[in-house]
Amino acid sequence: MSNPTVRAIVTDIEGTTTDINFVHKVLFPYAHSKLPDFLRANASTPAVAEQLNAVRHAMGSPDAALDVVIDQLLHWIETDQKVTPLKALQGMVWADGYQRGDFTGHLYDDVAPVLRQWKASGKALYVYSSGSVQAQKLLFGHSDEGDLTPLFSGYFDTHIGHKRDATSYQRIIAALDLSPDAVLFLSDVEEELDAASQAGMQTLQLVREGTQAGTTHACVTRFDEIVL
User: Which among 14, 17, 91, 95 is least surrounded, fewest beta carbons within 10 Å?
Assistant: First the structure.
């Protein structure tokens, strides 16, 4: 793919820059094991209390006891629910893990060199993931390739909307203040690419190991196959 009109690239994380196994076999189990003790120790701190109340609101139980809230959060992790307060709390737990050196943020080996190349050539780089903005910054800030956060101009999560909803991408386009066709969205998920395309973005599917290539969008297997 070669298109000089692209001025900004918005990338997904899971299955695109990062192996899905890192998320499901490292990050999720770590949050599942550490979250209960973390919440019991920090429930009264304002940032945590705010998210716990958001969980209670989502449950429809404003007076739910902490242990009931914890059980709900663990169930959401086990069933891979994209619930915004869960993502925020997971991000807090992962921050501890990254800072302790329990793990680093996985990146495919083709990602960082190409991101640096795009940044040097004047392209604006953004992330859009269902993981919280905090979790996104942690992954790229403590990545296998070091701190990559200086490469990015901004981050989007479920606060902007769900990833299979075209209006989410319309909001991103508005935030970037670019014409839709000047923005390229990268993802491994065809339904997300469909939504971005409906909003007028250019799209490209990353077909990593375990990903099924779709029929609607152009495909590559690595970032270094993308020519801008």
Answer: 95
